[in-house]
Each structure stands twice: as structure tokens, then as C-alpha cells.
Amino acid sequence: MQFLSPDSGFMRGLSDAIDAIWINILMLVCSIPLFTIGAALSAGFDAARRDLDGVGHVTANYLRAFKDNFVKATLIWLVFGSTLAALVYAWVVLQITPLLIVKFALTIIWAIGFEWVWALQARFENDPGHTMLNAWIFGLSNIGRTLALVGMDLVYLALVAASWVYMPQGLFLLIVLGYGTLIMLHTPVLEGVFVRYVGKATASEGLDPSRETNAGVDGIPDRD
To answer: Whose CB among 2, 56, 84, 212 lies 3.0–4.6 Å from 201's, allowing a Cys bridge?
Structure first.
């Protein structure tokens, strides 16, 4: 029964899955006012990273990160949320063929930024404008990782759509797993890039190696 040992891969995976579900629940609750979605997402990335590193307790980490990121993440969400609403309106209402290329281009640009911006906000100290700029810099300069992140999200959305049509009873499980599980899967992909900048900023500025200002790309130190 070695697989039931607390240090076994099975038990660690089970623990991560439970924590991902709890992070998802916390994000859902904290997103109820809608304008707090950005802070909820940033806090989710922070809590997931610390959980995978074995640092602290999920709930305490999440609530602290939600408070710390609230103002800046909310400003970022005002940009991404309003842009998303405009894109949805364009795709649903503006059925004009010449606009297809523009809509595809803007949707791709939005998706690239969205995949990186919340983790950057959670990981690095910077103003909202530079955080968004760095999201596109990271996304384009690490296009393979960006495609992997988008691919994970598309698989999840495809499962939700398929469940909606063919097996509605499975929707509850997918909602419970939700974006918290995706964040757990995204975090190692993102940290594979961030760790290089965290190390540089920490060594040059004597900072705690868990949150730095965005000095690597556009003036980035870690936030911890």
C-alpha cells in the first residue's frame, strides 16, 4: 500500500487536485461581484504556486493574495473584461464578413495577454500598464508555452460544451474542477519562464525569492 503513503505520487496528486478544487471555489465566490474577477484570478495563481511549492495554507495564501492584488488586478480586469465584452458583441452581433480578420486578430491578441497577465500580476510587482505589456511580451516570446496554455483551456471548454450537449450531469463535476484545476496545470508552464527573472532580480536587488519587481523584461522584482 505504498501508493497511500503521504509522500507517494498518488497522494500528492490527490492533494493537489483537492487544493485545485478549493482554489476554484474560492475564485468563484470572490468573483461574484464580477468586477473582482481579476483579483480572484491573480489570487488563484498565487495560491496555486505556493501550494505546489508547499508554502503555507491554501485559504490563507489566497485571501492574502486577493487583498494584495485587488487594486491593480481590478484595473487590469477593467481592460480585459471590457475588451472581452466588446469581442463577444462583435462576434455575436456584428456579422460583417470584412470584420472577420480584425475580430480573429483581436481575439488572438486578447487570449495571449489573458493567459499571462494574471500570473504576472500575482508573481511580480509592477504597475498595471507594464504588467499588461509584459504579458504580451512573455506570450509572444514564449509562443510554444502560450499555445500549450491555450490548448489546455480549449480542451476544458470543449469538455464543457460536449457535456452540455451529450451528458449534462457531468457539468457539475467540470464546474467544480473549473479554472482552479487549469491554474494548477498552467503554473508549472508559467514558472518555467518566470524563474529566470526571479533569480536575476533576487540576486541583483537582494529580494526575497518569491515575489519580485518585473525587472527582467521591463523592469520586473518578485512580490514576496
So the answer is: 212
